[in-house]
Amino acid sequence: MNIIRNLFLIPITLLFINCHAKVKSDTNTTANNIVAKKTILSSAELQKNETAYFASGCFWCVEAIFESVKGVKEVVSGYSGGKEQNPTYEQVAYGRTGHAEAVEVYYDPEVISYSKLVQVFFGSHDPTTFNRQGPDRGAQYRSIAFYKNEEEEKIIRDYIAALEENMVYDAPIVTEIIAFDKFWKAEEYHQDFERRNPNQSYVRAVSVPRLNRFKQNFKSFLKEETH
């Protein structure tokens, strides 16, 4: 499969430098590399695209990463992986549901394949940390790859097998592989949070550096305006 053959074209291990470091403001880190403009698509336009679902820590970070990828038309922050109906941010944040912060990715399969989105997912977070991503701890920040059909499940499992076979990580991958059930859109103030709040302390200290590390290592995946 191309997904395995191209595995080491991307220096995945470089993305996790300082992943566990103490979070602090970096005066040299700016929001200049965040996507500056965004095309708003109607619901009808969005429905022409395929969807994919992932969870890998704070959805502010994950949304910004996927929105920088060519072929991705829209990314929505929300909650998935649990049984609670209509969860709120407060419920999820305090561990009162089984949901994780997740994203809904609308993408054009003629531009980017699901297998490449899986590469983006694994290459933009540390899949070996249990119920944690960077400074964020709790089951709501766990790593999950959701699949909608057998083909997607196989792509995920094959990619994990390739990562493990080639010992890309020093620790076991703990990413959950879950059949997609329901995605609940997060409150409106969470949508495009990183884009709209470039100087917010968490965004400057955690989100922007994470986005910039991804962009440095996945240059061929980026939209022209995000280079």
Automatic annotation (TrEMBL):
Residues 51-202 form the Peptide methionine sulphoxide reductase MsrA domain. Keywords: Oxidoreductase, Signal. It catalyses: [thioredoxin]-disulfide + L-methionine + H2O = L-methionine (S)-S-oxide + [thioredoxin]-dithiol; L-methionyl-[protein] + [thioredoxin]-disulfide + H2O = L-methionyl-(S)-S-oxide-[protein] + [thioredoxin]-dithiol. Its EC number is 1.8.4.11. Coiled coil: none annotated. The keyword Iron does not apply. The keyword tRNA-binding does not apply. Residues 1-21 form the signal peptide. One of its GO terms (molecular function) is peptide-methionine (S)-S-oxide reductase activity. It holds the Pfam family PMSR. HAMAP family: MsrA. Has an important function as a repair enzyme for proteins that have been inactivated by oxidation. Catalyzes the reversible oxidation-reduction of methionine sulfoxide in proteins to methionine. Belongs to the MsrA Met sulfoxide reductase family. This is Peptide methionine sulfoxide reductase MsrA. It comes from Croceitalea rosinachiae.
